[in-house]
Structures are given as structure tokens and as C-alpha cells.
């Protein structure tokens, strides 16, 4: 796979769009997996986190990432 920017060998794939990126053009962005919080009903309401946040996910820098509230 070739880098989207310069056609050299790709070292990573953008987690958002799937473009290949080399080590020089790779950027990092937060990547959220899951759906925020899950609440149990009843008198005692316990919440549990069901989402994970990857702080250093590979990003191509080209695609536009828009985060949305999921609760």
C-alpha cells in the first residue's frame, strides 16, 4: 500500500477512512469506540462506561472527522 500524500510505502492506515500513510505523513487523533454510557434502570441507577478512547490513533490528516454525542 502506498502513502496517500507522497506515494512512498505506507506504514499505517487511517482508522477513519482507510487511506494509507507513511511515517512522515501519519498524524494522531482521538478515536472513540463504543457508545458512551449505559444506564441501568431501577431505584439504584448504576452507570458503566461502554466506550474506549484511543488517544494516538493513526489519521491521514485529509478526512474530516466529526465527533457526535451518543447519549
Describe this structure in words.
This protein is mainly β. It has one domain (1-71). The chain is built from no helices and six strands. It has a two-stranded antiparallel ribbon. It is elongated. The model has no long low-confidence stretch (mean pLDDT 85).
List keywords for this structure.
71 residues; mainly beta; two-stranded antiparallel ribbon; 6 strands
Number of helices: 0
Q: Low-confidence segments, ≥5 residues, pLDDT <50?
A: none
Pattern of helices and strands: EEEEEE
Strand order of the largest sheet: 1-2
Report the mean per-residue pLDDT as an integer.
85
Please outline the helices and strands.
Layout: E1 12-13, E2 20-21, E3 27-33, E4 37-39, E5 47-49, E6 52-59
Antiparallel strand pairs: 1-2, 3-6, 4-5
In short:
By secondary structure, this protein is an all-beta fold. It has strands spanning 12-13, 20-21, 27-33, 37-39, 47-49, 52-59.
